[in-house]
Amino acid sequence: MAPDPPVLRLRVELLGVASVNVTAEKTEPAEILLEIARKALRRPGQEALRNLTLIAPSGLHVRGSCSLARLGLQDGDVLVAVTCRVPEVCHADKTFAAVALDGSVLIWGEGSSTDRSYSEVSDKIRRGVQHIFATERAFAALKVDGSVVTWGAAEWGGNSEAVQDRLQSGIQHVYATSSAFAAVSLAGSVVTWGDASHGGNCSQVKEQLQSEVHNLCSTASAFAAVKFDGSVVTWGDAVDGGNCQKVREELQRGVRHISSTKSAFAAVASDGAVVTWGNARNGGNSSLVQDFLHGGMKQICSTMAAFAALRQDGSVVTWGSAVWGGDSSAAADYLQGDVLHIYASERAFAALKLDGSVVTWGAPEWGGDSEAVQDQLRSGIHHIYNTSSAFAAVSNTGSVVTWGDASHGGNCSQVKERLQSDVRHICSSSRAFVAFKSDGSVVAWGDEVTVAHQLRAVGISGS
């Protein structure tokens, strides 16, 4: 078995200011990477940026004692650094939750009819919250002291009483399917709760999850754990990835990282090859492109039903649901090389190239068609953000270009003048974008209700 490289090579971008390459051990805590980034971005004669926030591709803030591997960071990832207030926001159904700067939790929105009310646990999350995670109808807050607090619909993971004694301390990270949670402790053990059929019950593989779990990945109804020795443990719905028996032999070579669609997994083995399993139509069968997946993978990105693999040579390979991004033939001429990074909405992909141009494919109304703004995407793009069905690209000068579902952020015409320059970061939910400018101002667009929610998360009452 080829050894898994212990060091992550990452790029940190302080948009409009600097971009630096850094390295960090996979097992190091997030707070170490944050300090490395602060020092690397420091200008001559200046002190390190003490108010820096580092944001992972998943949207999670890089902070605390959780290891970089358990945060889901991969070799080659691009992280965004910001020096302004940026909330960490997630949602369950139509209820939103955000971690405020003081470590308290803000919660608002519709659809909060739950079996375990927020009021029952509100005192426990007034301070010390580090991250919030969500299933479709429940939340789990991970606190600085390593404890976990849950609320929401009981059958969706909102009630963790059965395992509460194991959630009092020592938890490093929490993962979710659509209706179950899995928490990984500092020692590498796993605790699960919620819908048993969707990963909330790991009793059949319990012995394999007692220690040495490196990180987890999830589909909508199954979990896959990568252990420190490179072995893989799966549980949950068998059809949607909870059973990897058919590829067990291929996984014996050792696994570095796993990505997922809503019902399939794709693992990067220690030799760089890709192994897939789960729902065949949604990415679980990569046989048609297997000749291109034998090694040299830099990144694997996914929509809800398709994968896109970025190879070390800058070319892109896709598979899964054709209409959700699995067929990139229309853009194939632009994906043969020089691709820097891939981004995804629920049903479309956007590839950022070395020359600053952007290539899109997948469902047109979900951002797969960028023809209307193609002139603005030919060069100079620095970073791309997404909602569930739209994209927003930030240029080197801090201007913003949007496309995709207008109601979910694909149309920024009402705030266009305020997005012409100096945008440093964009925070997104499933339905709206919030841009943070260098002067400290905030601009939001997309679904009107969601916009109001996100502005509230940063302490602003109007748009």
Question: How would the blueprint of this fold be written?
Answer:
Layout: E1 7-14, E2 18-25, H1 30-40, E3 53-55, E4 78-82, E5 88-92, E6 95-99, E7 105-109, H2 118-121, E8 129-134, E9 138-143, E10 148-152, E11 171-176, E12 180-185, E13 190-194, E14 213-218, E15 222-227, E16 232-236, H3 238-242, H4 248-251, E17 255-260, E18 264-269, E19 274-278, E20 297-302, E21 306-311, E22 316-320, E23 339-344, E24 348-353, E25 358-362, E26 381-386, E27 390-395, E28 400-404, E29 423-428, E30 432-437, E31 442-446, H5 448-457
Parallel strand pairs: 1-4
Antiparallel strand pairs: 1-2, 3-4, 5-6, 6-7, 8-9, 9-10, 11-12, 12-13, 14-15, 15-16, 17-18, 18-19, 20-21, 21-22, 23-24, 24-25, 26-27, 27-28, 29-30, 30-31
InterPro entries: Ran_GTPase-activating, RCC1/BLIP-II
Protein name: Ubiquitin-like domain-containing protein
